[in-house]
Amino acid sequence: MDKETRGGRRVRKRKNEIVRAIITLDSGHVIEYEIKNGSIYRVDGLEIEEVETTLSIDQILQNARSMGSTVETFNAKQDKELQEKRKKDREETNEFLNAHDVQNKTMKRGTKMNKIANRRRNRRR
After folding, report:
1. Pairwise pLDDT comparison (112 vs 60), residue with the higher score
2. To the nearest whole number, what is the mean pLDDT of the chain?
3. What pLDDT does residue 69 have?
4. What is the C-alpha separation between 100 and 116, in angstroms, rounded?
């Protein structure tokens, strides 16, 4: 641990402290953990819940490795980069989906008009 001086106080600065861990099981299922203020949280999409366990994050990761799962750990800097990457990917996905939605509305309108035209044609017969 490095020590810095800020405002006359000595502050501990921890390098390479784990703030996020992603475990990929053999079945392909992904479990994501976030560590804040000494508590471990399980992240499942938009839902975040605190994990009630007596194990430390190191023990959880060691158990996952011993079961043959793939474990990725992230420090604060890496986590920030990961979040920025996810945010950028989400923006690109939103742009694509919005364009696709507009395309679908045009297609639906065209199909609806075709259906009305077919009904009119069939009535005349």
Report:
1. 60
2. 82
3. 93
4. 24
